[in-house]
Design brief:
Length: about 675
């Protein structure tokens, strides 16, 4: 029996016609293996219950005795059949709709098993069906799998067919996990697990089966990741950065503050990668305000002092300008040149800049996606940093990287991805985490109020500004829309100018020109604007430590991670900061989301709550996340398993016999075919 289940066509299963085979293809099932791995998404519970323990509204199955004569009422084509039954000494009425054919089988004294919805007050069961023990039962007493079906494929046909496939081919299901792991975690064999997933005898067996398959799924995923990394490690001849420690220390000492311990730790991790000949591919994650920019600055400094150029790519012009300014300030004493390249740099100016860059006269270039245009050349690109990576499209990062010869890559994200998710999503990257904010920061207090409290919010704004602070007011829309009844920035700007004649109120949105935006931001940085009415153009990266109040209009219009990003614009200095969410969400989930924001200002916790409320797909936004989809594993619930699986995968791969083992043979096809492994996962 050397035949692989992959090669067995569906028609080999008794009862599967060519027609049905075609219909199964629509579900992505084209061979016996795929059918056997078509798992149910839930179970219907037909296990027998006792009426003494059931609750009102429960869907239950009970065995009972028929106590009377059935009564059938017909209404045209519809019918209602009732009968007195007794179970556990309790008399109750069972009612079936449109099951008139059952009537003749309901003979007094006969045993019956009925399933349906229980109403304890009226001692009544609204039954969906019935089975009779004297004729043999198939469903009663079991957990029945529920598959995703449709078209001509019905639930009962699917159950029957998978059962049949298990009977014919179940013995051929191969084991995929190494024996040592099966022993280590006392996992049940794969064949048993797959059979039990389709027809668990009881909860325990179902759980054991799931535990085994979840581990397998996560382990094989991690194994692919780690195998890929191991294969590429030796191959890649990355840039070797040679700047010595003393030089870098000098720069670090010139910073206006001392690095936090968390920053020191990631700094070492990054410099270590940069000095080695491996190609660095590192994700730096840290909550908003944790101080990632300065880490990028140190890395960029190191590349310049090693004789290379550095590039920093950011998603918005506002951020590009801000980073250029702050890097210029930090690097000026060291004679390092920093240039800005965005879409607004054009003509002569752009030409000169590109020429200088190509000649190596510019050490560091900061920019938006303007950096990845075709005519941008570097003399010797040593390090590519992307800030706010989640904002970039799938290909943009890799284009930038190809502008050098295997430059080191540092990817920064403030999207607070719980560590385990990061490891999963970026399984072939190294992950550094800044786990604490700079000392002396006061946690941001967050309030959620309804629209009718706007007067008090205005009072709050006035108080903060009168104390010398600044505030943001964020709107979902730029201008009035007849489709959406939400606050728009242009109208609110006018209202605020009227409400606060003594303050300078600024307006910022995406439809202004770059020069206009720059001017408004300059005034806001300089505290010549105290109140900034804006759209989400300030969502990422903007750093004005004197701003202490963030007011978000129609906050329920934004995602949780977006709200957290917006909130992160305040709480960046020594003053206490506040975030006020103004929203009247109708739905329960909407209210939960607002509550979640008020309960924590820890980005990891926000992300976790968001995952719970929305599911991971949504959180990361479309397919760009590169987040794998698992069949059984749940990234939130199975966190620990994922980490465990990763450790096991790492140690298996370190064992040299792995590369000649059947398990590696099985992975090899995958490693070659899957596109994600050609560059790096996030590209
Ligand atoms: P983010 O991680 O959100 O990009 P930034 O790099 O913009 O955060 O840093 C937020 C603010 O904290 C900035 O004003 C920065 O100058 C300041 N900062 C960074 N590191 C420290 C530190 N170790 N001590 C004090 N302030 C710091
Ligand atoms: Mg930042």
């Amino acid at each position: 029996m050397n035949m692989k289940l992959d090669h067995i066509v569906l028609k080999q299963i008794n009862g599967v016609s060519a027609l049905k085979e075609g219909e199964l293809h629509a579900f992505g099932i084209s061979n016996v293996r795929e059918l056997l791995e078509y798992y149910p998404f839930r179970y219907e519970d037909y296990r027998l219950r006792s009426l003494t323990e059931v609750k009102d509204g429960d869907k239950i199955t009970v065995q009972a005795k028929i106590m009377g004569i059935p009564v059938l009422q017909r209404y045209g084509k519809k019918s209602r059949l009732t009968c007195k039954l007794m179970a556990d000494e309790w008399m109750f009425t069972a009612t079936w709709f449109n099951r008139h054919f059952l009537k003749d089988q309901l003979t007094a004294g006969r045993e019956i098993i009925v399933s349906g919805k229980w109403d304890g007050k009226r001692m009544q069961l609204t039954a969906s069906d019935a089975e009779f023990p004297d004729k043999g039962t198939t469903r009663s007493g079991t957990l029945q799998p529920v598959y995703s079906v449709g078209g001509k494929i019905t639930q009962s046909w699917m159950r029957k067919t998978i059962n049949q496939a298990l009977q014919q081919f179940g013995e051929m299901i191969p084991e995929l996990l190494p024996q040592q792991l099966i022993r280590k975690y006392s996992l049940i064999p794969r064949k048993q697990a797959i059979a039990a997933i389709h027809r668990p005898q009881d909860n325990r067996e179902g759980q054991e089966a799931r535990r085994r398959m979840v581990f397998e799924e996560l382990f094989l995923f991690q194994l692919k990741m780690q195998a890929f990394r191991a294969l590429n490690r030796g191959k890649m001849n990355g840039v070797v950065h040679t700047a010595d420690n003393a030089t870098i220390r000098e720069f670090v000492r010139s910073l206006p503050f001392e690095l936090t311990d968390a920053q020191k730790k990631v700094e070492l991790e990054i410099l270590h990668d940069m000095r080695s000949s491996n190609c660095m591919n590192r994700l730096l994650q840290g909550d908003v305000g944790s101080g990632k920019t300065v880490i990028a600055a140190i890395a960029l400094f190191a590349t310049v002092r090693s004789g290379f150029q550095g590039a920093l790519m950011v998603p918005t012009e506002i951020l590009a300008e801000q980073h250029t300014r702050s890097l210029q300030r930090l690097f000026e004493p060291f004679g390092i040149t920093v240039a800005l390249l965005t879409g607004s740099v054009t003509g002569r100016k752009r030409k000169d800049l590109l020429a200088s860059l190509q000649m190596g006269l510019i050490d560091i270039v900061v920019g938006t996606h303007a950096l990845i245009q075709e005519d941008v050349y570097f003399r010797q690109l040593g390090l590519v940093v992307t800030d706010e990576q989640h904002r970039f499209g799938v290909n943009q990062r890799s284009v930038l990287r190809r502008k050098g010869y295997n430059p080191d890559v540092l990817t920064m994200t403030a999207t607070p991805i719980p560590r385990t998710l990061a490891i999963t999503a970026f399984g072939d990257m190294d992950v550094s985490t800044i786990s604490e904010r700079p000392k002396g920061r006061i946690p941001i207090s967050t309030y959620w109020v309804k629209h009718d409290k706007m007067d008090r919010v205005l009072g709050f704004i006035s108080r903060e500004v009168n104390q010398g602070r600044q505030a943001y007011l964020i709107c979902p829309l730029i201008e009035e829309s007849d489709k959406l009844d939400v606050q728009n920035a242009i109208d609110l700007h006018i209202q605020m100018q009227q409400a606060f004649p003594d303050f300078k109120v600024g307006l910022l949105h995406g439809r202004m020109t770059a020069a206009e935006k720059e001017e408004v931001m300059r005034l806001f940085y300089a505290n010549e604007i105290q109140l900034l009415v804006s759209t989400t153009v300030v969502e990422v990266g903007v750093d004005v430590p004197n701003a202490t109040l963030m007011v978000i209009m129609d906050a329920d219009r934004f995602g949780l991670s977006q709200l957290h990003q917006l909130r992160g614009r305040v709480g960046r200095g020594e003053h206490a900061s506040y975030c006020v969410l103004i929203a009247d969400p109708k739905s329960e989930v909407g209210q939960e989301r607002m509550k979640a924001m008020t309960e924590t200002d820890d980005g990891f916790e926000v992300a976790r709550r968001d995952l719970e409320l929305r599911g991971p797909g949504d959180f990361f936004g479309t397919k760009q996340s590169g987040l794998p989809e698992f069949r059984l594993a749940d990234m939130v619930a199975d966190f620990e398993v994922l980490e465990q699986a990763r450790e096991d995968a790492v140690s298996l791969i370190q064992d040299s016999s792995f590369w000649t083992s059947p398990i590696y043979e099985g992975l090899r096809d995958y490693l070659q075919q899957e596109q994600i492994f050609q560059g790096d996962l996030i590209d």
